[in-house]
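Example for tutorial group B:
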């Protein structure tokens, strides 16, 4: 998948290989017995009674999954599960990834190309909402535990429930059901937000907001992103950008601009915030000079921050001010000669402009105008070579080198039939780097 901007630092609840889960029938009997105990007036006042009910519901949650866990190998599970075999198997594609789907009576297992179990999809749960029931039981245990003797156990149990909700959220995300994913992530955050845990799970909150945003449930998403910001969780500025986008879609433009600008003050290098601001000012026709006021304020605070001039270059580029963009990009490199991104910015600007000119030429039927556009296209493309090659020489990052090589390969190939041998030589050089993925 592309960068999904979701904090997937999910600690999935896993079973150890030698732990045998209860059958669905046994799990149901255990819940029924534990429920009966809570209806006994003498037992109902004991926290242990409710803790036992919570544990029974958690066992009922685990039961349909079988003796498997996320991260288990396919061959390993075939040994552990003994005579239990899948009813069928097929190859499926989820989110662009290929999986082997094994169908069992109560669940489906999805193994990735490496043969590792990545998703467990329960198809026949013992109860509809066992984790919610377990959480309610833990809350009752906390209420009757006047001395607080079981608080530690209750907190541990609720955190276990939260981790299972996180696992559910990740499963639904991979299965492509963003509504169920958002609900699961929300539950993960909600169960630990109240007594006796009283913790803010920003990972769960962000995931809940992100998956709600993906299905355009902007009201729900905005609520979760707002909680993230209140808790000091920003995901490198993405939370501000996503919250502002939600506010725009909810027609609250005043709040959106305020969110964008607050985010920009803290994360001026965030491309998501920057692009959001640019799109807003261009789309509304409001004065885009406000963007330069913001960047100049940031530069006053950090006059030697090369990345701020790079951001200024990006703003000018998006506004079509190419000369000003190039000057800002060059300034970033002047401030820090080892900062390659300004030079990369110039190269991409000329490259992108060349593609625009190429498209204009393709749609032009007047020969003279066509030839003029082609000449401009070739000139812009050649202008990208020097800054790209300077950036290639400066950067120490192999991945960046290979990315730059991809641009240079394409440029040199365009002129490879030119009498000047440097173009064919350049094409061969950068083609080899792209093919190998390694730059000297």
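The residue assignment follows.
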């Amino acid at each position: 998948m592309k960068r999904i901007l979701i904090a997937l630092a999910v600690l999935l609840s896993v079973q150890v290989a030698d732990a045998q889960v209860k059958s669905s029938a046994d799990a149901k009997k255990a819940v029924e017995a534990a429920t009966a105990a809570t209806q006994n007036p003498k037992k109902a006042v004991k926290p242990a009674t409710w803790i036992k009910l919570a544990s029974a519901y958690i066992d009922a949650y685990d039961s349909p999954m079988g003796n498997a866990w996320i991260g288990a190998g396919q061959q390993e599970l075939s040994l552990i599960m003994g005579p239990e075999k899948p009813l069928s198997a097929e190859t499926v594609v989820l989110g662009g990834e290929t999986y082997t789907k094994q169908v069992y009576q109560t669940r489906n297992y999805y193994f990735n190309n490496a043969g590792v179990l990545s998703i467990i999809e329960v198809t026949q749960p013992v109860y509809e909402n066992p984790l919610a029931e377990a959480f309610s039981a833990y809350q009752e245990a906390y209420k009757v535990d006047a001395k607080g003797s079981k608080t530690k156990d209750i907190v541990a149990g609720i955190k276990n429930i939260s981790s299972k909700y996180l696992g559910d959220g990740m499963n639904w995300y991979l299965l492509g059901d963003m509504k169920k994913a958002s609900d699961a992530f929300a539950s993960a955050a909600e169960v630990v937000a109240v007594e006796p845990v009283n913790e803010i799970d920003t990972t769960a909150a962000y995931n809940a907001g992100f998956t709600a945003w993906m299905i355009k449930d902007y009201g729900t998403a905005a609520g979760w992103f707002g909680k993230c910001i209140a808790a000091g969780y920003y995901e490198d500025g993405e939370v501000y950008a996503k919250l502002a986008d939600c506010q725009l879609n909810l027609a609250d433009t005043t709040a959106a601009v305020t969110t964008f600008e607050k985010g920009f003050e803290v994360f001026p290098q965030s491309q998501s915030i920057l692009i959001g601001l640019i799109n807003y000012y261009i789309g509304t026709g409001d004065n885009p000079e406000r963007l330069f006021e913001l960047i100049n304020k940031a530069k006053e605070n950090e006059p030697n921050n090369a990345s701020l001039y790079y951001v200024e270059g990006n703003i000018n580029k998006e506004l079509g001010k190419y000369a000003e963009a190039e000057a800002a990009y060059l300034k970033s490199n002047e401030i820090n000669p080892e900062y390659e991104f300004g030079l990369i910015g110039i190269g991409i600007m000329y490259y992108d402009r060349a593609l625009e000119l190429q498209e204009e030429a393709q749609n032009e039927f007047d020969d003279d105008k066509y030839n003029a556009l082609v000449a401009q296209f070739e000139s812009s493309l050649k202008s990208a070579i020097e800054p790209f090659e300077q950036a290639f020489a400066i950067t120490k990052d192999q991945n960046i080198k290979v990315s730059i090589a991809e641009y240079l390969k394409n440029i040199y190939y365009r002129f490879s039939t030119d009498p000047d041998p440097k173009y064919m030589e350049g094409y061969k050089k950068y083609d080899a780097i792209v093919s190998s993925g390694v730059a000297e």
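The radius of gyration is 29 Å. Compare this with the pattern of hydrophobic and polar residues in the output above.
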